[in-house]
User: Fold this.
Amino acid sequence: MKKLWLIFAQTTTVGLAVWFLIALLHPDWLPKRTEPPEVVVVQSSEPKASPASGVPSYRDAARRAMPAVVNIYTAKETKFTHPLLNDPAFRRFFDDRLDGDEAQRTSSLGSGVIVSAEGYIVTNNHVVESADEIEVALADGRTAEARLIGTDPETDLAVIRVELPNLPTVTFADDTRTEIGDVVLAIGNPFGVGQTVTMGIVSATKRTQLGINTFENFIQTDAAINPGNSGGALIDTRGNLLGINTAIYSRTGGSLGIGFAIPASSVKQVMDAIIKDGSVVRGWLGVEPQDVTAELASSFKLKEARGALVAGVVRGSPADKGGLKPGDIVLAIGGQDVGNTLTMLNLIAALQPDQQVDVRLFRDGREITVPVKIGKRPAFRQP
Assistant:
């Protein structure tokens, strides 16, 4: 046994010596090492962990969008008349030496989003409405006077423009892919404290019939939105613009976790129209619509509650000229079904003035189709 161990030790020593000589003199004779497989890094839209704490962070999304969100300061002159000046006895006492109207300067604040390198900024109409002066403050410290390009009160959107070089811009997101539960960030200037980012989720989509705007299709979020956030950005976790913050539900004036944003697709449509034509041109029918309830459907002998009941017709309107009458139920416009008054309103608004379309009606227990030439929608008038 001792002899076998001696032979093994000598053989091992000789083998190591031979390997050392080959490695020193002819390393190419030795077999090559196998490289480890290449690791492919796949980027994810999930939040990255903060190096300091390891907690998921949306810093990249905020850093990408914040430079394009601006603070907007407006000022306008208003006339104030003291109620006592309407009293003839009071005016006689002062010998009519009072002018009556006193000019006062009021200011307000809001937010906006730079959408193009040419200086176009989207904000809410109520932020810049009737303003004599509009000043924009960028996140990098620059300020500039802004010029109003156009407004669309029916969606509460407006476009202003500044003349500055090297402007940061935001990228529009595809809001059609937005789902309830998606994480979102709201960026704006609440209460004038300065640019602020808040986080929440998408609470609901396609919110309508809130009585906020004529055309409604809101994204609802619980991200904190307060006065001054109006016109600011609602972004996704990639830093893309998902919507324009426009309104909140509140009993106190502060955030209660119910905020509403105009979707990016609607913003882009209105923005492009304003930049091109200075306003948004929509189709108009000229009826006073009403949703068809189950009771109304039964009384009109309609098989199901659908369509929009014509409660009234504006004299001289396209509907009047086309032969629509109170009591008609609009079932389809241009081949597209009308589910309710909101659907009808959106279908008509999407049509161009002077375009002729077929309107399918339910009248006197049967369906008929009448051709109607669409008109141009007047401002602040019901469809």
Notes: Residues 36-44 have pLDDT under 50 and may be disordered. Residues 175-277 form a domain with the Thrombin, subunit H fold (CATH 2.40.10.10). The chain has three domains: 65-161, 175-277, 283-376. The two ends are 108 Å apart (CA to CA).
